[in-house]
Amino acid sequence: MMGTRPAEDSQVIRIQRITMDHPLYAQEVALRTAVLLKPLGYTIEDYYNMAPGREEKCEHFVAVIDHPTGDTVVGAATLYPPEPSADEQAGKVQQVCVDKQRQGEGIGKNLMIAIEVRAFTELALPGLYCHAQLSAMPFYEKLGWEIGSDIFQEAGIDHKRMQIVTPQP
Q1: Could you count the other beta carbons within 10 Å of the beta carbon of residue 162?
Q2: What is the dihedral of CA 13, 17, 21, 23, to 10 degrees?
Q3: Can you tell me the distance from the alpha carbon of 28 to that of 98, in angstroms, rounded to the nearest whole number?
Q4: Fewer CB within 10 Å: N-end or C-end of the chain?
Q5: 154 compared with 19, residue with greater pLDDT
Q6: Whole-structure pTM value
Q7: Whose CA is closest to 106, among 134, 136, 75, 137?
Q8: What's the pLDDT tens digit per position in 138-152?
Q9: 25: CB partners within 8 A, 6+ apart
């Protein structure tokens, strides 16, 4: 468990880092598909095919609540660490999503905090970046991220690169 936060209905949200063989991975994929991919006409297989091997290299973070039927994933995000030989040394945050019924409760913020802690303290990365849809930019800006590019198209949607550098002591 990386952090907890009581939601408005007093449920505790746990942020966990999981692997693809973890029992919660199927729920993570289902949430990412429902919130991010299906509205664009994509399946998870389409996503896997767009960047072969990337899913396996990502670190997976999920926001989990206790539910009478078992742990339930209500948020997800992935961190793609930089390749050792790549020019880009910042990690890439991808596939950030929260169950539509749970948005506005701070779940996305807590996912991002967990990723930043992992990236900056445990992995000692110099920075993080993401390709944010224009509608998501205020979310990242509230977290201290800055705009790092002009508008570009990804999956047929306008995006901008958002970025944050390692906090200086």
Answers
A1: 22
A2: -10
A3: 10
A4: C
A5: 19
A6: 0.88
A7: 75
A8: 999 999 999 999 999
A9: 18, 19, 60
